[in-house]
Fold:
Amino acid sequence: MSSLASRESLRGWSNHSIHIVSIQMSSLASRELEVIYRDAFDEREFPFK
Structure:
């Protein structure tokens, strides 16, 4: 029974870690998009950079 309990807690911990990683990935992706849009805007503003 202890192995079953540890397996359940491990599954809950892995789901928690996946949730944290997905939040970090989404914030990183939005930051990357912000940088891409800023670079495109800078190239439009200053074409001879």
In short: Residues 39 and 45 are 10 Å apart (CA to CA). The mean pLDDT is 78.
